[in-house]
Amino acid sequence: MKRDIHQDQPRIEINPDHLPAQKTVILLHGRGSTARAVAPLAIELQVGDVKFIIPQAAKNRWYPETAFGPLEANEPDLSSALALISDLIAEIEADGIPPEKIFLGGFSQGACLAAEYAVRHPGRYGGFFIFSGALIGPPGAPRDDQGKFEGTPVFIGGSDVDPWVDHDLMVGAAKVFEDMGAKVDFRTYPGMGHTVNQHELRAVREMVSNS
């Protein structure tokens, strides 16, 4: 399998108000979805001078196995996905957008990928948003995440009965971000399905608007 499986895939760019972008959001779709399918979410998150970049995953998934199993089972796809995000951020910075105006997030598998990228590359960003996701790797496995987020806002939202992402994993992800110096907004929605609700969207719009 090619190590750069995701690098040659298409992407969607959205700037609904056609204004010069002062901020950029990278939005990651979930397993079995597409960039096109998640594009309406970018419209709902739009708050003005913001450009959205929505990359497409090869085979409509960022990695083949569960996010919460052995890391090696998801290679080389996982490393390719993480490298793609690094490439996108470098491209955005080259266009004149500083890290503190760059946002990264997603839903489900895309949320897990965003969370994992963040803790592997800590620093001061505009913010991260994790819709029904958690960190990648076996639950309880020791991590060696180092560095500080310097107050970067992080939104984590999900259900207490999510069939795909155990609530305890979201709690654990929130703690890792807090321990690394992020400003975490963690919200649990009792009985909600595996989805994104309007409260979550509003919280992320406020994050992007205020950063």
What does this structure look like?
With 211 residues, the protein is of the alpha/beta class. It has one domain (11-210): Alpha/Beta hydrolase fold, catalytic domain (Rossmann fold, 3-Layer(aba) Sandwich). The protein has 5 helices and 7 strands; from the N terminus they run ββαβαβαββαβα. It has helices spanning 35-45, 77-94, 109-120, 167-179, 198-210, and strands at residues 11-14, 23-28, 50-55, 102-107, 127-131, 153-159, 183-189. A 7-stranded mixed beta sheet has the order 1-3-2-4-5-6-7, sandwiched between helices. The longest helix has 18 residues, at 77-94. It is globular and about 45 Å long.
**Secondary-structure content class:** alpha/beta
CATH architecture, by name, is 3-Layer(aba) Sandwich
CATH domain class name = Alpha Beta
Question: Mean of residue pLDDT?
Answer: 94
Radius of gyration: 16 Å
Shape: globular
Note the beta-strand portion: 15-25%
**Tally of extended strands?**
7
Work out the count of structural domains.
1
Kindly report the spatial arrangement of strands forming the biggest sheet: 1-3-2-4-5-6-7
Counting DSSP H or I runs of 4 or more residues, the number of helices is: 5
* CATH fold-level assignment: Rossmann fold
Oligomer: single chain
Span between termini:
40 Å
| Helix share bin | 25-40%
CATH superfamily: Alpha/Beta hydrolase fold, catalytic domain
Biggest sheet statistics: 7 strands, mixed
Which residues form runs of ≥5 with pLDDT under 50? none
Q: In sequence order, what are the helices and strands, one letter per element?
A: EEHEHEHEEHEH
